[in-house]
Design brief:
With 458 residues, the protein is α/β, with parallel strands linked by helices. The chain has two domains: 138 residues, lyase (Annexin V, domain 1), CATH 1.10.220; 308 residues, Aldolase class I (TIM Barrel), CATH 3.20.20.70. It contains 21 helices and 14 strands. Strands 7-6-5-12 form a four-stranded parallel sheet, covered by helices on one side. A four-stranded parallel sheet has the order 8-9-10-11, with helices on one face. A two-stranded antiparallel ribbon has the order 1-2. Strand 10, helix 18 and strand 11 form a beta-alpha-beta unit. Helix 9 crosses helix 17 and helix 10 packs parallel to helix 18. The radius of gyration is 22 Å and the shape is globular. The termini are far apart. Pathway: Amine and polyamine degradation; ethanolamine degradation. Its EC number is 4.3.1.7.
Length: 458
């Protein structure tokens, strides 16, 4: 099926829905690299005007990647909830946008609707939104998950404490963890990207994290961000809280990561069987990022933002505790500058929330991108207003193992303070018991005798 729109006597033709979605996307370098972007601003506007008139039902029978070719397409179609979709089934994409911005689309209504929306519907409507719209809609969404604490409640902002070390040195990692805890970070997860994926190294780090957590009775969860197959190999040998995996929006992308839906299902069931959660059983942690499919030459001719939102269908299947878009990590080939990174992050957060996911954002950039920490300050503030579930806490905002710039413990304090946000309730109570924060969320002076400072990594 082809689509077209005329502006000033010039007719723009879009051969199929996949092309229309790509041409309607706000400009980013990845789509230009793939040859998918609109060639002029006017063509992009024509595509957006055309997309606004597409009925939502079209996305249920016009797959942008064929059903028989891609297991994520099959997942999207086979798991679609027609009853949840019914209240908006008569809408076009443009009408969905207008409704989402209206008072009729409140928090409870959006929670009920999310199983009826497909990633392509959500990607399409986001392409018609200003940044302000993306913030407004996301702010109305509330997605709450639980393991040892409760993440995603309105009025709260959690932090993944990211104590990476380029040699996985336990003492260096422990120093970063204690530093982060004393600044109120770590309620989303204490999560380490290991320098090596060897099972022995992963087991050693997991045992250290669990010993620290138990010694100080910290109501949080830990995760070593190893490959899912490594986690499955050691899951009965080590204290595994969350199972991690990077995922993409096409079957080919996930194959390049060495995963399929069946493998993720096996890992999910294995993690559930451990029964390590105390207040809930959300046991998966997924990371995504615009450009991952294109960088693997697995995008199937689909624009990078739509590919990203399709990855959320994979995440949604496994009811994760955390989903994190590592928005500026892949590099300027995919998101060239601060403006593109900010736009992509707001899209990812809004689209994930609309699909019912507990979205966090790694507010980050690489040193060869046209971005700086001022861009990240802007994005951090915007995401805080939008109700982001969690952000990263990296010592000094500079990850010495992954070599990119993110957000620091101090950045999280800033966001909580200026926006009146608190850590997860259980973690907040622990911080007060430890004398780290008071009931107003103010950081307290911690003396040299504080027992956290006595911790010795084994």
């Amino acid at each position: 099926m082809s689509y077209q729109h005329t502006i000033h006597y010039k007719t723009y033709q879009f051969n199929d829905l996949r092309t229309l979605l790509a041409k309607a996307t706000p400009f980013r370098s990845g789509d230009a690299l793939a040859g998918l972007a609109a060639t002029t601003y006017e063509e992009r506007v024509a595509a957006q005007m055309t997309l606004a008139d597409v009925p939502l039902k079209t996305f249920l029978h016009d797959a942008i990647i064929p059903y028989e070719k891609d297991e994520i397409t099959r997942l999207i179609i086979d798991s679609h909830d027609g009853a949840a979709f019914a209240p908006v089934s008569h809408f076009t994409v443009g009408e969905l946008r207008d409704w989402l911005l209206s008072d009729a689309a409140d928090t409870v209504t959006l929670q009920q609707l999310s199983p009826g929306l497909t990633p392509e519907m959500v990607a399409a409507v986001s392409k018609l939104m200003r940044n302000q719209d993306l913030i407004s809609v996301a702010q109305k969404c509330e997605v709450v998950t639980r393991f040892r604490n409760t993440i995603g409640l309105k009025g709260h902002l959690s932090v993944r404490l990211q104590p990476n070390h380029n040699t996985d040195d336990p003492k260096g990692i422990a120093a970063s963890i204690i530093d982060g805890l004393l600044y109120g970070s770590g309620d989303a997860v204490i999560g380490i990207n290991p320098a090596t994926d060897s099972p022995q190294a992963v087991v050693q780090l997991l045992r250290m994290l669990d010993q620290l957590r138990e010694q100080f009775d910290i109501p949080t969860q830990s995760c070593i961000l190893c490959h899912v197959t490594t986690a499955l190999q050691i899951i009965h040998q080590a204290p595994v809280d969350l199972v991690f995996q990077s995922i993409g929006g096409t079957e080919k992308t996930n194959s390049s990561f060495g995963v399929q839906l069946k493998l993720l299902q096996e890992a999910h069931e294995a993690a559930l069987s451990l029964n390590r959660g105390t207040v809930g059983n959300n046991v998966m942690y997924f990371e995504t990022g615009q450009g991952s499919a294109l960088s693997a030459n697995a995008h199937e001719g689909v624009d990078q933002q739509t590919c990203e939102v399709r990855a959320y269908a994979v995440a949604r299947k496994f009811s994760p505790l955390l989903v994190n878009t590592v928005v500026g990590f892949i590099g300027p080939e995919y998101l060239f500058d601060g403006k593109q990174i900010i736009r992509a992050a707001l899209e990812d957060h809004c689209c994930g929330k609309l699909l019912g996911l507990p979205m966090g954002v790694d507010i980050c950039y690489t040193n060869h991108a046209e971005a700086d920490q001022d861009d990240m300050d802007n994005l951090l503030t915007l995401l805080g207003v939008a109700g982001c579930n969690f952000i990263m806490g990296v010592p000094g905002a500079d990850d010495i193992m992954l070599n990119y710039q993110s957000t620091s413990f101090h950045d999280a304090l800033y966001a909580r303070k200026v926006l009146g946000l608190k850590p997860a309730p259980e973690f907040d109570a622990w911080l007060q018991r430890q004398g780290i924060m008071d009931a107003r969320g103010q950081l307290q002076q911690v003396g040299k005798a504080h027992h956290l400072l006595s911790y010795q990594a084994g």
